[in-house]
Amino acid sequence: MSFFSGNKIRKYVIKNYDTIFLYCLMFLICTLIVSMQRGFRWNSWGIILVSIIWLLGKANTYKFSTIYKDKFVLLHLLYFLLFIIGLIHTEYFKDAKHGIEVRLSFLALPLIISSSAKIVKTSFNKLLLVFIAANFIGTLLLYANGKQVFSDFLFMVSKLILHRPYFGMYIVFCIATLAYLISKSKNRLIQILYLVLIFYFLYFMFVIQVRMATVALIAGGTIVTLFYFTCKRKYLLASIFLITGIISSYYGWTKAPTKYKDLVKSAFKLELVPYNLYSVNVGHSYNLRMLTWHCALEIIEDNLLIGVGTGDNTEELVKCYEDKNEYIYEMRFNSHNEYFQEAIRHGLVGLIVFLSMLSISFYYALKKKSMLYLFFIILISICFTTEAVLSRQAGVVFYTTFSSILYSYFVINDD
Questions:
Q1: Which residue in 155, 224, 239, 395 is a FRET match for 110, CA 20 to 30 A apart?
Q2: Phi/psi at 94 (5° precision)
Q3: What residues contact residue 396 under an 8 Å CB cut-off, 6+ apart?
């Protein structure tokens, strides 16, 4: 019983901090794939475990006075602080409370993980492999539901253990991490195994029909490849790659079906399209976003500077939906765009802080010439355009965990 006294536990954690913290961080990464199953918030327990271990084993030696020098941590804390400040002019405190709870990892994880950067340095590949393994197991669960997952889109969606856009985002990052691990491995068999896994994950993306994740994979891969050639001063290869990409894109556009060309043109005008011309997946998702974006822009225009407050964004959107579409009104959808969400909630001030938070990671990725870090920021930035990723804990924890891990490994440990 004496072991369970506070002092002894703390001494034990301090003595074995690196090992305990690493396993807790691995557990947190594993919870991403089962972020909420049967009403149990696995992410929350992962964050609590990591936080408790840090408080017991690291907090007493951390110099909190140095936070203002760390722009990465500071901007994430400032982003969270906006949610507290936004309570001043919010009417719906229940929604505000939920928004703050979901984003608690912005307060904790960047600080905790960056202050434990040495652990990340020695175990970086292990953390990536845990994420890949968790997602691989998650994909296998879908196939246990039989052949219907390949022929019935709605059935397939209902059997996924994670919301489809989030799953697609995770899988794309798995592909990027596998490419990174291939470049670092000297074992040919391991490289072949990783390559097989890349093709498997590409196939899974095709099965679950994730469009924006596919766009992010192509766009991110193209930008990172060009950046890599430029860093290596292989300007001829960069030019050939760029020209080939432009020609291929033009040829693909000319050969694309007319209805999909019209879809792209309509998107730039925020116009609706006839449902009967497209599949359930394409037509429904597209029109839903056009309607929500229309309302989002109206609200932003009316509350440009400081927004509507931390908890009022959903209610303001629902008021707008009432006269436009009964379905989205009853479903109480968010704007399906993270940039719009931030602008609705905290206005131009909040949007600037949010973009600054993303930009600092983009800057560090370029400065340190980190291809994986750069790809992650491009991936998350593109996914933000068609999904309010940070409205769910699965998105918040994914972003805060891996942005902090990548920052710790490629920036802090490199200085």
A1: 224
A2: -65, -45
A3: 102, 103, 105, 106, 389, 390
